[in-house]
Amino acid sequence: MTTLAAPAAKKWMLAAAIIVPAVFLATIPWLKNQPDVVVYLFAGIAATITVLCSLALAVIEDRRMDEWHRTAARFASQWGWLTGGALVAILLALPPVHDAIIGASGALAGVVDPDRTLVLMAFMLGFIAVILIQSLCTMVLSFLWRSRKSRAE
């Protein structure tokens, strides 16, 4: 990718990473009346586009960084993920956060009084799944990196 193409690609990737989830959220009232297969299809497409655009943005930015910026990014991502995960875990212990999660879930689902336990358990299990999968991916990528770098040249 040329240096002139990178800013244009970055703008398109950033726009898509923001617009696609916004469109998905805007279509929730319509999706409520659709069969599950349509909802899952739209959610999968939106998630895939958003993740791919985010990865492309990361690659574009990485190619523009010098060693100082890469070190800063490494520090921020290492401690940012850890701090963010810990902060979410702490916030999940607070009743006002429970109320916000339940209120948002009820509003999005169009349910006046959603089951508190079910909503909180689903949210917490989703959070736990994200943390576990991130940990697993960190371990696997660390292993792959070390095995690749430790080979005799």
Which runs of at least 5 residues are low in confidence (pLDDT < 50)? none
Order of helices and strands: HHHHHH
CA radius of gyration? 20 Å
Distance between the termini: 29 Å
Number of domains: 2
> What integer is the average pLDDT?
88
Strand content: under 5%
Write structural notes for this entry:
It is a single chain. By secondary structure, the protein is mainly alpha-helical. It folds into two domains: 1-64; 66-153. It has helices at residues 5-26, 28-31, 36-64, 67-91, 95-109, 116-149. Helix 1 (5-26) runs antiparallel to helix 3 and helix 5 crosses helix 6 (116-149).
Layout of strands and helices, then pairs:
Layout: H1 5-26, H2 28-31, H3 36-64, H4 67-91, H5 95-109, H6 116-149
Helix pairs in contact: 1-3, 5-6
Compact summary:
This protein has 153 residues and is an all-alpha fold. It is built from six helices and no strands. It is 84% helix and 0% strand.
Kindly list the characteristics that best describe this protein.
153 residues, 2 domains
